[in-house]
Amino acid sequence: MTLMQRIDTRTRPAVIRPARWGDKDALLEMIHALAHHHGDEPELDLPALIDLLNADLPWIRILVAERDGALLGYAALVAGVQLQHGKKVMDLHHLYIRDHARGEGIGRHLIESSRDVAQNLGCARLTVSTQDHNTVAQAAYRACGFAPHPFSGTRFAMELA
Fold it and tell me: CB–CB of 75/63 below 8 Å?
C-alpha cells in the first residue's frame, strides 16, 4: 500500500494523504473537537499549529482522510526514540474521525497509513494510547494489530512556558 491509497467505504472513497497548507483550518477545528471529546480545553491556535507543521525537524506528521474536498479525519504522528535501544519509534498521538464518517473504515486506513509512514522512516514500533475508559478505541486498536503495552512507572511533566 502507498500513502496515497484509496479507501473502500460505503459511500465514495476517501483518499489518505499528507496534510497540506490548505487543510490548516479544518485540522484545527478537528483537533479542538477531539480535545473537547476528552474533556480538555484546547489551547492550540492556528499560529501554533503552523509552527508545529513547519518545525525545523519533522516534529509532527499529519495524515488526513479526504472525500470530495472535505476532511473526514486525521492521524497525527510524533517521532520519538528509545534511546537505550537505539531505535526510532513513532507515536500515533491523535486519531480523529468526524461523527458522520465513523464506521466506514477510515480510522483503520489512517492507522495503516501511519504504520506505513513509521516503517518507511525506519521505526521499530508504532505506539498509541487511550484513556482507560475508552473501550471502543481500545477494541479498534486491537483490531488493527496493536497489543496492550503496559506502562510501568510514573510520568512527570514540567511546564516551560
Answer: yes
